[in-house]
Amino acid sequence: MKPHLLEIVIFGAIILLLSAGALSRNNIWNDEIGLCVDCVKKSPRKARPYIQLGFAYFNAGAYDRSLEAAQRAIQLDPKHGEAYYILGLTYKQMGDAQKAIEMEKKVLEVDRSFSLAYYSLGQIYFETGQYEESEKAFQKFLSIFPYIPEVHNLLAVVYMAQKKFDKAVRELEREIKISPSYALAHLNLGQIYWYEFQNKQKALYHLKTALMLDPLLPNRGEIRRLVRLLEGLP
User: Fold this and answer.
1) Cβ-count burial of 3 within 10 angstroms (0-12 exposed, 13-18 middle, 19+ buried)?
2) Among 143, 148, 153, 190, which is least packed, fewest CB within 10 Å?
């Protein structure tokens, strides 16, 4: 029996996904909104100030207003990919995954160089269980930005969700070459090496490395118990 493998690994990835979208809502955002509103007043016929205002509202969690600002930017400039990108982010936060996907695809339709849309699509597809589409989106993003370890980790988790463990290991090993101190990659590798391949030596190395690198590691107590179990095995 292989308890908790995907549960633990995916839990770690979801923390990463959610923390990427978690934003502090304090007076800083109020100041930013005020500045952006002033820019809109000074240049009401330009799309850029509305885009900045849309981001400010998004950061503050005012999603309805974020939508309004982005939609106004599109009215002024229908070919501005960044406005559709804001819409995608906002719909995602509002729980409308289908609309979010539509908007991120629209980004790439009007501006193929706006590569962040691939990252957003990878996240949305992952969170909605569309793993093959998530895999393609993250692969496309990494073909443009190959040295971002967090995305390699996310792609590895997508592979794990599809039980493509050999591919997951290759992706995580690649990630560690880029960033040897990335604890989550070591955590995921350690669990795969034990639960899937019964390789105690490699599992212990990566699990211990993860514990050493990050005192706030997800499920730290459970990982320490696994390490003690493996150390006691012949």
Assistant:
1) exposed
2) 143
